[in-house]
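As a warm-up, study this chain.
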Amino acid sequence: MKFKLIIFVFIMFLLAPLTINANHHQAPIDKLNQISDEALQMVKSTRYEDAKKLLEYFSNQFLSYTMEDHSFTMDELRIVTVAHNEAVEATTSTSMGHNERINRVTKFRLVIDAVTSTHQPLWTEMEGPIMTVYGGVKEAAINGDNENFHTRFNSFLSLYEVIYPSMKLDLEVEKIQQLDARINFIDHYRPRVLAEAASQAELVALENDLKNIFDEMTEDDADPSLWWVIISTGSIIILTLSYVGFRKYQGERELRREREKNRSRELKD
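Now compare it with the structure written out below.
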């Protein structure tokens, strides 16, 4: 029992510094991420004025951060600036619909996550909706359903536009260019895609490209900094189980010895 208590205390000792460091203070980069998320929640709740104030606050914080830390590339700064401007416009426009406002601020939210996160980015969570809509595009094309094809492909383009800036931050230029080429071909030659089996092959190729990209981005989402904790804690658990098994084996062996002694005494008596 004492040994188990010692092991428990030791594990807590190992994990305590991680908890303390995580809660001690919020890093500036994490603060930017949080502000973008709060702005999105404000827009979803139709609190556009509050969202605008948060985006203005973000702008000041982002400028301060970039002046102190020059870790962003020019491409990253450009993409963030464009996404931020579109998000601000979404909170001030009187003619923009609610769904379009959400899409614009979501785009901004995903961009900030892409430049601040080191592991699986949020934009990969859009895989389900995008692949579902795209499946409808392919089905409509195969069936020759003209109206449904145009409607579904336009919906796909709207969703794709939301994650496109974030993808540009995380993917190689060659992959983005390949996606652009396939999407532009399908968009520009819609009548051919509906009428020709050869052109419909581009639909299948684009679907495979999208699947591969999502699969690659979600393959390894574990934080490498946690592996030491996982390995050390796992080792402790294995040692604990081994020790308990060894103690149990020793106890059973002592019990057998005691029984044999008792039997020997009984035989002698």
